[in-house]
């Protein structure tokens, strides 16, 4: 038997063009297309970026706990830029980590751990 972890999400149309309903483990999420003129819910692009930035938060938080680093707070801001010509691709993604309760060298090590995984 494999030790592979499998995450499953099921997405369906919602009855509103450009809006999908996604479900995982009984939790539901409404996602709007990034190309909708005025989205009401998180867009697909925002959800993707949130997945990446929240991974940074949780991975660093758990690693700090496991290694005894006195992390008090972490905020990760992620910004993805897409051109109008290729809106389906990010031309750049920038992440900014703000970490409280640790020295600069500890913060640098925590971010390096995230980048290395």
Structure description:
10% of the residues are buried. With 117 residues, the protein is of the alpha+beta class. The strands form two sheets. It has a three-stranded antiparallel β-sheet, with no helix packed on it. A two-stranded antiparallel ribbon has the order 4-5. It folds into two domains: 1-38; 43-116, 2-Layer Sandwich (GMP Synthetase, Chain A, domain 3). It is built from two helices and five strands; from the N terminus they run βββαββα. Helix 1 (44-67) packs across helix 2 (104-116). It starts with 9 loop residues before the first strand and ends with a helix. The mean pLDDT is 94. A hairpin with a 5-residue loop joins strand 1 (10-13) and strand 2. The protein is 32% helix and 29% strand.
Oligomer: single chain
The string of secondary-structure elements, in order, is EEEHEEH
The average pLDDT is: 94
What shape does the CA trace take? globular
Which radius of gyration do the C-alpha atoms yield?
A: 17 Å
| Low-confidence sequence ranges | none
| CATH class group of the largest domain | Alpha Beta
Question: Major β-sheet, in short?
Answer: 3 strands, antiparallel
Biggest sheet, spatial arrangement of strands = 1-2-3
CATH homology superfamily name of the largest domain = K homology (KH) domain
Bin the helical content: 25-40%
Strand content: 25-35%
User: Could you say what the CATH architecture of the largest domain is?
Assistant: 2-Layer Sandwich
The CATH topology annotation of the largest domain reads as GMP Synthetase, Chain A, domain 3
Tally of structural domains: 2
The number of distinct β-strands equals: 5
Q: What's the helix count? A: 2
First-last Cα distance: 24 Å
- Helix/strand-derived class? alpha+beta
């Amino acid at each position: 038997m494999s030790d592979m972890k499998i995450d499953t999400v099921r997405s369906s149309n919602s009855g509103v063009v450009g809006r999908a309903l996604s479900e995982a483990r009984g939790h539901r999420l409404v996602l709007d297309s990034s190309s909708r003129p005025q989205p009401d819910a998180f867009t697909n692009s925002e959800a993707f970026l949130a997945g990446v930035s929240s991974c940074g938060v949780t991975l660093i938080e758990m690693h700090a706990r496991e290694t005894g680093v006195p992390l008090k707070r972490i905020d990760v801001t992620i910004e993805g830029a897409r051109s109008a010509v290729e809106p389906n691709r990010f031309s750049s993604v920038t992440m900014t980590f703000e970490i409280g309760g640790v020295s600069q060298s500890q913060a640098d090590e925590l971010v390096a751990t995230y980048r290395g995984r």
